[in-house]
Every structure is written in C-alpha cells, then in structure tokens.
Amino acid sequence: MAFFTAASKADFQHQLQAALAQHISEQALPQVALFAEQFFGIISLDELTQRRMSDLAGCTLSAWRLLERFDHGQPQVRVYNPDYERHGWQSTHTAVEVLHHDLPFLVDSVRTELNRRGYSIHTLQTTVLSVRRGSKGELLEILPKGTQGEGIQQESLMYLEIDRCANAAELSVLGKELEQVLGEVRVAVADFEPMKAKVQELIQSIDNSQFPIAAEEKTEIKSFLEWLVGNHFTFLGYEEFVVGADQDGGHIEYDPNSFLGLAKLLRAGLTSDDLRIEDYAVNYLREPTPLSFAKAAHPSRVHRPAYPDFVSIRQIDADGKVIKECRFMGLYTSSVYGESVRVIPYIRRKVEAIEQRSGFQAKAHLGKELAQVLEVLPRDDLFQTPVDELFSTVMSIVQIQERNKIRVFLRKDPYGRFCYCLAYVPRDIYSTEVRQKIQQVLMDRLQATDCEFWTFFSESVLARVQLILRVDPKQRIDIDPLLLEKEVVQACRSWQDDYASLVVESFGEAHGTNVLADFPKGFPAGYRERFAAHSAVVDMQHLLSLTEANPLVMSFYQPLGQVSGQRELHCKLYHADTPLALSDVLPILENLGLRVLGEFPYRLRHNNGREFWIHDFAFTAAEGLDLDIQQLNDTLQDAFVHIVRGDAENDAFNRLVLTAGLPWRDVALLRAYARYLKQIRLGFDLGYIASTLNNHTDIARELTRLFKTRFYLARKLTSDDLEDKQQRLEQAILTALDDVQVLNEDRILRRYLDLIKATLRTNFYQTDANGQNKSYFSFKFNPHLIPELPKPVPKFEIFVYSPRVEGVHLRFGNVARGGLRWSDREEDFRTEVLGLVKAQQVKNSVIVPVGAKGGFLPRRLPLGGSRDEIAAEGIACYRIFISGLLDITDNLKDGALVPPANVVRHDDDDPYLVVAADKGTATFSDIANGIAIDYGFWLGDAFASGGSAGYDHKKMGITAKGAWVGVQRHFRERGINVQEDSITVVGVGDMAGDVFGNGLLMSDKLQLVAAFNHLHIFIDPNPDPATSFVERQRMFALPRSAWSDYDTSIMSEGGGIFSRSAKSIAISPQMKERFDIQADKLTPTELLNALLKAPVDLLWNGGIGTYVKASTESHADVGDKANDALRVNGNELRCKVVGEGGNLGMTQLGRVEFGLNGGGSNTDFIDNAGGVDCSDHEVNIKILLNEVVQAGDMTDKQRNQLLASMTDEVGGLVLGNNYKQTQALSLAARRAYERAAEYKRLMSDLEGRGKLDRAIEYLPTEEQLTERAATGKGLTRPELSVLISYSKIDLKEALLKSLVPDDDYLTRDMETAFPPSLVAKFSEAMRRHRLKREIVSTQIANDLVNHMGITFVQRLKESTGMSPANVAGAYVIVRDIFHLPHWFRQIEALDHQVSAEVQLALMDELMRLGRRATRWFLRSRRNEQDAARDVAHFGPHLAALGLKLDELLEGPTREGWQARYTAYVEAGVPELLARMVAGTTHLYTLLPIIEAADVTGHDAAEVAKAYFAVGSALDLPWYLQQISDLPVANNWQAAAREAFRDDVDWQQRAITIKVLQMADAPDDMEARVALWLEQNASMADRWRAMMVEIRAASGTDYAMYAVANRELLDLAMSGQSVL
C-alpha cells in the first residue's frame, strides 16, 4: 500500500522539503535539503512510497541531528525504536544509525553482523558525505557529493531498519556489538599498509633463508607473495609465533610485538586452553615447509562472514628446524575464485605436477576432463592439499565424471579444526533435502559443531557440494572414508529408490516395472514423510485390489514405536476416483465406537489420469471399551467396508461390532428387528434400542445365537435336539434378563426374544446365485406370538429389511390378496398398511382370497432426483421387496410342494402368495411377474395381476365402472337415471387418473362443475355435458395430463382453472350461485372446502387423501395432515350421493354421519371392489390355464389370446358382483330399522367368536343403536357394508372348513366364477383347480348373502341350531328348485322400468320365500342333506305345480294372491314375474305338499288340492297371516313366531296326509276334507271357536297363539290312537 505518490525522485525531494520545512529554520533548509538528496540517493521511488512521508522526514531529521556534531575519534552508533512521543516519528522496525569517518568494509561488516545475529534488514541507506567541520566537530557545511580538498572530510553515514527488537537490553547489546565490529574494521584498515610492507620483508627473508629451498620453489613462493599483495588478498591481521612442546601435544607462543591488524584484538587475553594444540598439529607446525595454508578458527566479522585464510611463511634453520612462523590472516578477494588455476602462482605448479603424473594427453578427452576438474576444484583444496593427496582425489573425481554415482572426499585441516568434504551427487536427485541429509551424516560422524557449504553446478550430470565442518581438535575421530561414503549414499538414497526396489522385489520385475510406470509421480511427499517404503508397497497392493465390485479396502495397523499403554490405532482406507468425504466417514467410525483423532488423505495419480486415494485415520476406542482391536480387525474392517458401501446402515447399532464382537450381518439382523419394533409401535426410538443392546452385549450375542440356532443350525439338528438347544438358549437369555435393572430395557430385550420366537422363516442364510449373502433380509412372522401388536392381527406377516428399502406384507389367511403400495410414511408405513388391510379384508369378501396388503418404503431416494431417477430407485426397491417375499415362500412343482432353499420352516406349507398394484405401483405388475418367473414360482404371471398379459384395470376402467354401478343405484333409488338425466358432479382427481378419468367418462350427461387435484382447481359452473365429455375424453387419452391441459375456450362463463398455490381466487357470480358461496374472494383451500360442501348431485372421489370426517372426529384422528385445512364433516356435505372410487376418501364415521343425514354412499371397499375382484378372476383363470399350458394342451400365446378375448366377460362378472352387492345393501338398508335386533345379534355373535372388533370397524355400540332406534333409524349403508363383508368372510371360512366344497353338486357353483366361454371349454380342468374349495366357498357365500341378506345365516343358525355349512347347502337346494337367480334377474331387468321401491319389494318377497324354504329344508332334512337328490326330486314337481297355482288356490287365499298380482302388474311388472312373486307364500307351501305326496303316494297335484282345501276349511291362511303380523320386541318373540309358523305348516301337512289316507273317501278333495272334519267334529269345532275368539281379540298376545297352536295340534292328532 502506497502512502503517498510522487511523479519522480525530484518530486519526492520537493515534497520532502515541504515536510522538513515545518521542523527546521529557513536558513538550515538548503543544507538539509542537500543532505536529504544524498541520504535518499540510491533508494528507488517505489520503496520510498511504501513509507509515510512523515516517517521519511523523521528519519532524515534524526540522521541530520547525528551529523550536526561528530568527532572522528568516536564513531556514532545509535540503535533505537522510533516513536512519536520521543522522536516525533515512528517505524514498525528498529532503526540503526551509524556515522563513521569513511573507511573500506564499513557497510559490509555492519550488514554481516546484523545477518549473523539473525536480523532481517528492511531498509539500507548509505552515503559518503563531504563535509567541513569546526574545531569542536560541529558541522559547518555539507558539500556536493564527491567534493575533495583541504579541510574537507569524507564521512560514511548508514541508516538501516531491521526487525524490531522489543527490549531495551537487546538494543544496547546490538549497539555495543556494532561498535566492536567497527573497531575491528578500523584496526584492520589502519594496519593494511604495514602488513603489505611485512610481505615485502618476508620475500626478502626467503632469499636469505638458511634452509635450502629449491630455486624454482623459491621463485614460486616469491611470486605467490607478490601475487597476494597485487590485490588478491584482503589483509586482516598478522602474527608471529613459535610452538612449545608439552607431554601430549603443545602450545603456541605468540610474539605480541609482531601483531598487526586484527591480531591485536583477537590474540589479547587468550587462556592456556585457547593456546593448546594437539600433537598432530605440533607435528604439522614443525614441518620444514616454507609456505603453508590453513583456515582461521573463527569467522571474520570484517568484510565477509567467511572463515579467514591463513598464509604462513616459516623461518627454518639450516637443519630444517622451524624457528618461527609468520602468519597472515585475511580473505582472498573475489577475483581469485574467478582466475584460472594456471595463472595463480604456487597452485599452478601443483596443477602441472598432477597433469604430468596423470599421463593424459592435454588435448585428449581425459586430459580435458582433468583440466576441467582442476579448474573448478575449490581453491581451498588446491592451496591446502599436498600434491599426493590432491592427485588421488582429482583422479577419483575424473573417474566418477558423468556417472550417476554419489562420491564423498574428506580431508582434515592440519590443525584438526576443520574437515573439508567434497560430495558429488547426481543432479537429478540433488535437493536441499539431500544436501541436509549429507550434512547431517557428516556432522553426526565427525561430531561437528558448525558447517558451511557451497554448491556448484556445471554442465556435468553431477552437482558438487563443498562442506567445511568445524570440529573439535581434541576429538580424535578415526573415520573410514569408505564407510562414511556408504552412509552418505544410504542417506541420499531417496525413499523412492527404496520403494522402487521393493516394488520390483514384491511384484516381480515385469509387473513391478509396470506398476512404477503406471504411477510415475509415486507417493506424495506427505506420505513419504510418515511411512516407510515397505508400507507403500503394501498400500499399492491394496490400491491395485480395488475393483468395481470392491471399491473400498480398509486395513488396520498399529504404528511402530508406540508406547505400550497408548491405545492409539490407525487404519487406512483405499478408494478410487474421489476422496472419501470426512463428513461421511467420521460418523461411521464414531458409530463403530471409535474416536477419530486425525485424518490424512494422500492422492496418487495413475498414468491414465485416474486418481487413487489413501486416507489414514488415527483413532482410539471410545470410552469404557477395553478390547483388543487387532483381534477384531477383520470383523471391524468387514463392517466398515460394508457400511461405507451402503450394505449396512450407519447408526449406533454398529457399536456392537466392538462391544459384542458381532459381525456386521448379525448387527444388521438386530437392527432389522429394531426397525420392525419401531413399525409395530413399541414406543422406543432406534437409538434407545441400540443403546439397550450395547448395555447388554451378552444378551445381544445370545439373541443372535438363538436366531442362528433356529434358522441355521436347525438344518443339521433333529427336532428334539433343536427344541432342547432353543430351550437352553432361551433360559440363558431369561436368566440374564433378571439382572437388567431398567424396566424399558427389559421390555425391549424381551420383545426381541418374542420376535425371534415368532419368526417362522427367514432368508438370512440364503445366498444369491453367486453364493454371496443377500443384501436384504426377510422374516416371516406368526403375528399372534408377538405381544401387544396393534390390531387387527394378521395370520402371517413378512417383513423385508435392507438399508435401501423396508416393507411389510400382512396376510389374513393362507389364501389372501391385496396390493403393494409405495409408501412415503417412514415413521409408520406399517400403520398405513394396517389401515389399508382392514379395508382390503372387507373388500375381499366378494372374492376367493381374504385380505392382504403390503407396503414398501424406499429409504434412499435420490435427493433432488428427477421423476425418472426416483421411479428407477422405487422400482429397484420394489424388486428387493418382491424378492424378499418370494425368498421364503413355498413353491409347487408338478403338484408337489417345494420349500425354499436354505430356509428352515417353523410353519406348515404355505404356497399361495399373490400381489397386486396399488398407489405408486400401478405399472409394476410385469416386474413382479418377471421376478416370480425367474424364481420359477408356480403362479407364474398369475403372481401379480394386471400385467401385460393380464387385465389392465385402467384400460378396462373396471374400478370406476364398479363404483359407477353403486352411483347408478343410489340415483335410481332417487328416481334419476344417470345415463339419461344430467347430474352435477364435483370430483377429486384429474383425467390422468384411472378411477377419476374412467369415472367421468361413464356418462355423457354429466355436468362436471368442479374438480381438483394436488396442483389445480377446475371450475366450470354451467358446462355443456356433450362438449365437456368430448374434451374429457381427449384428455384421458393423453399419455400424461393435468387440469391445465383442459381447453378453457369451451368452459362456461365464470369458470376457470386455478393453481392451488395461488394467493387467492376471485369468486365469479356463476360460482357463487352454483356452489352457494357468499364471499368475493377465497384462498384455494377455502374454495376447496366450499366445493366439498356444494349443493350438487354427486361427489366423486378418484383421488388420494381423506376429505370427509365426522364432526365427532378430530383432524389428528384422520391421519392425513396434508388435507386438514380443507376437510369437511359428513353432516356438512350437501351432495346427494358420494361415489368412492378412491380409497379412504371419507372416514367411516364421516360416511355414517353423511348417511344419517340422508346422503347416499356405501364405502370405498364396496364401491371400488371391482379392481381387486377383477385381479382375483385373472389369477384364478391363469392358475387354471397355466395347468392347461403345462399339460401341453395350449401354448402361452394361445393362453394370452384367450385371456384377452375374455376381457368383457370378466368385466361382466366383476360388475355383476358389484351390482349384486350394492343391491343387497339396498335391501338391507330398506329394513335396517325393523331388523335392528337381528344385526345386534349378528354383531354380538361375531364379537363373541373374536371375528369382529366393533371399535376398529366403527360399528355402533348397543347404546348408540338404541338412541338411533328412538329416531326411527337403524344401521346406515356404510355400516351395513362392513357387516355384509364380515358375514361373507365368516361364511366363507365356515364353508371352507366343511364338506360343502367337496360335494359334487355344490361344486358346480364354482363355474359362476369363470367366464361362460371358459366353462364351456374347460369345465373338466376346472374341477382340478388348485383353489377349487376356496372358489366354491366364495361363490356360495357371496350368492347366499347377496340374495338372502346379511343376517340370513345367523337367523337360521339360531332358529334351527344347524351349522352355517348346512344352511348354505339348504340354500343352494332352495335356490335351484325355485330358480331364484332367474327371478332375481327378471326383477333386475326392470331397472328404470318400474320404481326401485317396487323392485326391492319384489326381491324382499323372493328373500322371504328363500328364507322360509331353507328353514323348512333344515328342519325336515336335519341329517340327510343331499343337494343333488333333493334338487332332482323337488325341482320338477315345483315347476309343474307352480304353473297350476291359480287352479290350486281358492277362496280368500286366491283373492289375496289375485290382489297382489294385479298390484304388481299395474306397477309395470311383467305378468309371469308378478304371478310368481305374488304367490311366494304359496310356493313355499308346495314343499310340504310334495313331501306329503311322497309319504302318501298320491299325485302331487292332488295333494296340493287337499292341502289348500284343508287350509281354506280351517281358515289357516288367515291364521298364518296373523302370526306373521305379530310384532317382535326381542329375539325370543322372533323365535316364537317362527316356531308358530313352522307348527302351523307341520299341522296342516299332517292333516292333509290324514285326509289323503282316509279309507273309502270321495275323490273330490273338498268333499274329502269335509268328511274328515265331520269325523273329527268336536276337535274341529273347538278350533273354529278359537278362531272366533282370536278374531274378536283386541291385542296381540303370543300366549294366545301358543294356546291356539296347541288346539291345532290336537286337531291334527285326532283320529290317532293315543299311545
């Protein structure tokens, strides 16, 4: 950041002057300005602008103050921290100011000292000033730079800024040291000339030497000394000394008078220790060598921070004894290092000698090589090394040239204070790191205290490092140069070198070389620092083992050198392509019970660009865990890898791997059970369950052992052994449970035990095709063994668990069916399925199977995924779920049962499993069938209905059509024909939906005034039925549509399509009128609430959600949060009819409330049973045809063609069921109030047998029924819907357990379950149908309840004491002999021709006939029912007599019949039907008549005449009518009334038989009867008198009829001898 700007240096000076002017007088300003110009002379402008102008002015003034007075004898040194207060300016650094008379080396020496002390220099301003001073040193004048002359002094000014020194002591020490340095400079400079003179002196002394020196050598020594003086040596000091000997070495004795320069300072005050030298040094100093070289022991503080060089001239006597040594100390000037060795005296001779000795040709390669080596050899070596040693070193260097090898040459200095080392290192591996390693080895081996180095690079492949090591002369270290070199080589041997050789060793040469080539960069530096090369080889093996299937590898290790008490552990994770996110891995390790202390990621790059990652984790086991992880290594590793892969979940259960030593699958098993516990509302969250198991690891282990024993070891054990083992394990668990203190934990663990014991089968030990464990578990439970299971409790339940998906399948019987739903209720999908299965149970009353329902919850849907991505994951989850179900289901092969592989079964054979589509899985049937076919499942593509070779519900519109049948009936009973008359509709759903779309195309007369789905609200207040129908058809045909696709141009005024996310919606006048809304503006939710309450004809639900509840229920009770804001109460609905195509559109209590308010509705399971009914037909047809295909009598293709060709027939059968069932409801609702007592008894009976829970089904209590009765109301249609289903379910069960389905005649009923065309072709195969008994039971139960009413079986059971099976058998006989179905069809054909009331009245008559006739059969054929015989016998007689009915009847009886007949005909009933229904009472009496004919042998027609004649004569028809009209207050009275009627029938038959058996009686029946009465006159008179009394009686009294019946009995008995 610049503090000011200046255009140029001149501009800066100008600004500076302006700043200075504020502080100094005007006259001083020019001088200060001139000073400032010189002071900042060489500093760049850039550097200046980085400082504040005020601070620059401050430092200028400060320096000026220093200049103002100065004595040359006392150099000035100031070291201070400038601050505003004391100095008027500031700096972040410490300022150093030095003023000294100008000398060489000042600046270098100051700078050297600062660097030596470790201070960084931030600013350095130096200038040499020309000044004049007065006598006292005061400044007189500053002159322009470089001015010379008399009285002008040159002064050197230095200004530096260095790192700030905080404390004052440090500042003063620094000041003193700098003064010392300056002192040394002065001394050295002062004696420079005397020292040069000394050289000349010594040159002469050589000439005069007593010791003989060769002439050549003499000349060379002299030229060398001349050369030194010729600007090649900076003289710093001079001394003379002699060597004194001691016993183990010697000492130096200096001659103080000889001292020049620094010697004066350095040699003062030396101790004897300082003067001591080792014996080898003494020997060296006594050698008669005239010229020698060495290094000084301390670095120079003057000029350069190097160790100064010694140049010694020894004075030697004639004997070769050294007299004294004259020694110069100084520094070679830089030019020496640049000059050729061939021009430096003394050295040049050594060079020549070596070249000669080498014998190399000067121009040859080696000669040149040698010359080059000598030229670049460090000068120190050339000066100091004796020729012999130098020769061998140089030759070795020549030999290693251009070879990638490390060589080390070592030389000791003669005084033993230094070691000189030359290290040659290949350039490609040379680095600071390598140099440090070499230095370290040398310093360690030589025990050096200091080391200096110079690195030399040339075009050679080798780099050269020259190291000078400071050693202690006393330490006599014997160094083996070869060994040392080896050590250096080893130290320089890089990690990579070790790694490369180990890779080749481990992988083999070929593979190893490839591996090294594949990863050219090898391992990163961070890795190399932490791990040895052999670890890297192991890690590389792990990395190479990564595959698609195995994308993660883990290895645990304990770091070497760890203190034994430390519990720290490490693991490495190996992974390709992307690094593992810490946020993913940490929670996994923490959940495994490990505390992570650190993580280090390392990346390796393959040649092909692929990345590989190694993550190194350090951790300890969590508190309180004392375990040997090495022992659990594999278990832990296995667990971790599977958790990261997603095969196992990451939660607190995983701690069991460590705490209980359980493998991950066993942990997953316990987790799966916990997940199930959550679904069955145990009330504890998973975390608490996990901590319970962790607190009781012994029990957790025992539980898994019990499971293993039951389902794995059981394969090899006999049942007794297994039982024994299980008992022992269970006992052990129970004993351990006694020690569990916490009640909740005890409850959880006991429930685990219950669940394992309730598990019947599992696929846990089943493997897939590759022999691998499956990624999901499925468990089949016996729910009745699980305590506190939410009701209703199914017969079987399968729970499928994997981290990806969970699901349950609930079945209420061995043969059960229901859809599978894609649930989104993570917390309680089982609760959702339980709610649905209740509806399924009652819905399935019309079909063979009982209720079942499944739901699966995908747990890893892609976040923010597209519709297709989410669908793909949903399908994958569905596949897992289906596989889980089939894994543990029995199969059938060639009629024999095949249990699933590797599944231990603790239950009986159970091969029937079918599924169907439901919310979210509409298109999944083919997928399910594909899986079933892969499994070879016996049902093949009958497993999931509605696939491509099945009946497409949406295409058929079967669910909507079925519900429409109910809607038609509701309106028909209100006098409206929805196919002809226009009705207004509000709908829930959109045209893309099956139920909604198909439903709103059921009639082209509909006026759809409003509809909504989750996105839009559609409003068309006054639509044109025809055009809107066409537009709806167009939308339905689109692949996907929403209300926004509707053509708004054809909409009526005031309508529109509104978004549900709009803020508010304006209400048009037309909307106000149509929907009876007052407001001008409503929010979308308020508008929907108003639409649901609108006064329209029909509310059609084809959507998802619950929109209507009872006023007594809260929104929370409903359990559909999304629609709380718009939901309405049943008593607020103003529509006439609700059609429930969708499930759960209303709560059951909401329906009841609507019904009590006069609304027309059934229930969802009645209205939309078409779907499930159609699916069941499909499955049963496929089971039949698959047998035919397998027998080879048909191909698959033919089968599929046949299936398709029967679509309409199947639809017809289904809609027939819908029609019949809603008709039965209408018949029941019509008499619900009168029959209230019967329903009470039915409910009590079902409850007593545990078949019904009124509360679950929302059926009214006795008190509520009594309250209703007070207002003249009985059960509503929705309640009757529940009861009709329950009575069918109950009857189906009873029939299945009886012999009814095995009776050949009764079995014919199964044909009604199949399309007529199929019956014609395959009736033989049908008898062998696998579900024959179930189908027969279902068909008979449905037929009976639909035609005879909900309480029929219950009434007859009570009045006759016979079983439901007997009742059903008798019913079939009655049905067939009276041809009841034929007559019912005749009445049904009158839809819209006569009023619905008339139709229902006609049916009521038929029901009465059926009921009475069935009771007659039950009473008269108590133990010998034989349907085939009875139908064959009674059928023809009844047909014959029925035609003559009007001939047979006479008197008042005939008149009554005639009146009824006429009334029916006038109401529009065809004559034949009217005759039949008018005579139902008399038709019933034909049964005793035919029986009487059998007894007497008379012709049936004769018997009939007699029978009716007896009746007329005794007034019995009137009397029977009186009995029938008796009011019934309770069940006893109802039973009494039935008994009275039966008695009268029996007596009338008895009298008839007697009349027919009279001897000698006239042929005419009336005459015969008259004769008989004459013969029994007294009795007959008593009876007639009784009749008179009854006629006269005012009240109706059961006692009276009891007495009258007794009289009639007496009459019937008369004429018999009393026994």
From TrEMBL:
Its EC number is 1.4.1.2. Residues 733-1227 form the NAD-glutamate dehydrogenase catalytic domain. It is an enzyme of class 1 (oxidoreductase). It comes from the Bacteria. It holds the Pfam family GDH_HM2. Residues 35-178 form the NAD-glutamate dehydrogenase N-terminal ACT1 domain. Keywords: Oxidoreductase. Residues 1272-1609 form the NAD-specific glutamate dehydrogenase C-terminal domain. InterPro entries: Aminoacid_DH-like_N_sf (IPR046346), GDH_C (IPR048381), NAD(P)-bd_dom_sf (IPR036291), NAD-GDH_cat (IPR028971), NAD_Glu_DH_ACT2 (IPR049062), NAD_Glu_DH_ACT3 (IPR049064), NAD_Glu_DH_bac (IPR007780), NAD_Glu_DH_HM1 (IPR049059). Residues 407-496 form the NAD-glutamate dehydrogenase ACT2 domain. GO terms for biological process: L-glutamate catabolic process. Residues 552-631 form the NAD-glutamate dehydrogenase ACT3 domain. One of its GO terms (molecular function) is glutamate dehydrogenase (NAD+) activity. PANTHER family: NAD-SPECIFIC GLUTAMATE DEHYDROGENASE. This is NAD-glutamate dehydrogenase. The lineage of its organism: Bacteria, Pseudomonadati, Pseudomonadota, Gammaproteobacteria, Pseudomonadales.
